[in-house]
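RETRY 2/3 - previous attempt timed out on the joint model. Re-submitting the same 491-residue input unchanged.
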Amino acid sequence: MNYHWNWDIFWELSPDGVHTYFQTLMLGTAWTLITAACAWIIAFASGSIVGVVRTTPYAIAVRLGDVYVELFRNVPLLVQMFLWYFVFPEVVPHAFGTWLKQLPNGSFYTAVVALGLYMSARVAEQVRAGILSLPRGQRQAALALGLTLPQTYAYVLLPMTYRIIMPPLTSELLNTIKNSAVALTIGLMELTARARAMQEFSFQVFEAFTAATIIYIIINIVVTFAMRLLERRIAAPGYLGFRAPAAGH
Amino acid sequence: MITIDAISKWYGPTQVLRDCSAAVAKGEVVVVCGPSGSGKSTLIKCVNGLEPFQKGRIDVDGISVGDPKTDLPKLRARIGMVFQHFELFPHLSVLRNLTLPQIKVLGRNPDAARDKAVSLLDRVGLRVHAEKFPGQLSGGQQQRVAIARALAMDPIAMLFDEPTSALDPEMIQEVLDVMVGLAKDGMTMIVVTHEMSFARKVANRVAFMDKGEIVEDAPTADFFGKPRSERAQLFLSKILQH
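RETRY 2/3 succeeded.
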């Protein structure tokens, strides 16, 4: 292999004439983080709602929740991105479609919605499984005290559910961050897209993707660590994941 | 106070309750016993509407439980229930377990709820554990907290669903003591249990269930003296041997 290594490439000016390659990678990192964060908010919120709905006693609502999950879970993320970006604006009323297509940062909004909904189906599955893993008596006890069904979820079932599903939820958050790379296909200049651009202009493919890899790893290690810390903080004493404070208390 | 009138219930094609009728007057303590799978738990869960039933009628303090127009949460808040597996909320401290329903359901202010909780924890001998979490208490202690939690709602009646069945033998008595105290204070109680010593001591009546039917419903002395049905005799001979 006749490859010319050049690790100083990061400090050279990129074709935009303003930023160094390192700075373009940082800009990409920022877009990756913002996209993943916004998508996670959608995923967590609608995933929680759909997950809850699927454990209620209302058969029609449960069915609708099932359809939601199967729809967003069974179509590849890439296809969903394309559908939202290229197809959706064409099938809605013309004026709305045109407005969508002219939206500044349109690929960002599209990526957030597409990734958020895709991940929400997975979160919904985790939330549902978590609720079903609780003893049936918990729901009965809450109802027997006179709590309404929404109160039962809010004060009794969900607080324990989230504690139990923290580990799989962490995985889903990491997946959200990693899957945000798919947004490069609709033109979002996130981290992977920046690495590719750097490779194309400078031909330093190894340096570019080494940097991207390291940045992804750092982000995800930090997230994993933070989630573990949170998990330990909120653990219910005497239950899964709880560690007694050190002696001397 | 509680009247159960010809209740029948099915799970799909399986009938789990057959034409059950009983009445519990204010201040009365009724023990329900019978072999496992006889429908005892299902029957008392019908009383506060946790289990729906297809036929018959249950009235609690003049309110029909099965009527779709009945405000079930409101009715349930007036009926205390204690479960076999305690069902304390593990993410809340003992104190919060007692105050949360008072605040959210009855709309009590937090200070009043706290005072009530502390005095009830005192009554069940667990005041010092108020700040602990359920997972840090023994089974017997958890069940006493669960009783205190139900009492904090000022119930007009209490339902007990095998409250000592999940406990180690040495913890059964501490829970029964609390229940005996309640009975002596005049609480209206329906108790599903196999603790015949408890039945003898405080029950006004004992109902015996088998295969979804109330086979016998007799004053306590009569029930232990000369149960009329063969099935109740057989059951008693089995559980009173030791």
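The first helix of chain A runs from residue 21 to 53. Closing ticket.
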